[in-house]
């Protein structure tokens, strides 16, 4: 049946894309970890929030934040890649209320309301002169500080909740931006891998459609691919070779005219684009396709 053929072609194509995406994802993770892109990305977002490199550095030196730093393989200290909202709020409120002060000048945690007001007033005055953007932001995050109140603890909790909300909103936008960056990196890596192994989506579809035996062989192998599989270049080549797909370069597969190069370029790009979606996406799709295939296989066996 045509539907069975279409399903088998789809499974074969997804298996191919999955093998490339696993390799691209692992290379990407290795690059991001080695180059410290996550921590640098977070630091850039904090700089956008504070608009002051000195305040950002002071934030990272806060005891609550400093403990989140990690040691790299080379023994260097790397800034955190993730900061829980409550810790961010506590450290930031401390910094806001004591801007312009050294560590020795920061009041004790048990300071009175009057001391808090005085410290905050001095800090706001400092920020108005040094960082008008942040001073304006703080007016909304820490409002009515001059009002008399006997419930200092509740006030501080309110301030921290406001700052948490500010950080959460910023991180939601930052996460979207980070995903765009990683998708672009995944696309570039996917295209490079597809080009290196000559994984041409157009050619693979044509071959799968013409060869029922090849389709059935790949469907049988599909369930053996696991999310935890490692994917070195050697292992990736071995997996692709095991599928008996038309991949790899030889003299016959080099295009000879502009039309063939255009088709080859499209096939390579489609493979890279698929890899940029990530291996978890293709694992999910593969499981769904295999779930559709199993009932058909059971019916064929009965027949």
Strand content: under 5%
Major pleated sheet: 2 strands, antiparallel
Instruction: Round the Cα radius of gyration to an integer and report it.
Output: 28 Å
The pLDDT mean sits at: 79
Count the domains.
Answer: 2
Distance separating the two termini: 14 Å
Helix fraction by DSSP (H/I, runs of at least 4): over 70%
Question: Which structural class should the secondary elements be placed in?
Answer: mainly alpha
Please tally the β strands and state the result: 2
Number of helices: 13
- Run of helices and strands: HHHHEEHHHHHHHHH
Strand order of the largest sheet: 1-2
Q: Which shape, going by the Cα principal axes?
A: elongated
Q: Uncertain regions: pLDDT < 50 for 5+ in a row?
A: 103-114
Describe this structure in words.
The structure is a single chain. The protein is mostly helical and 303 residues long. The chain has two domains: 2-34 and 179-302, no CATH class; 38-171, no CATH class. Helix content is 73%, strand content 1%. It contains 13 helices and two strands. The protein has helices spanning 2-35, 37-50, 53-61, 63-66, 85-97, 113-130, 132-141, 152-197, 201-210, 212-222, 233-242, 258-275, 279-302; strands at residues 70-71, 77-78. The longest helix has 46 residues, at 152-197. The protein is elongated and about 75 Å long.
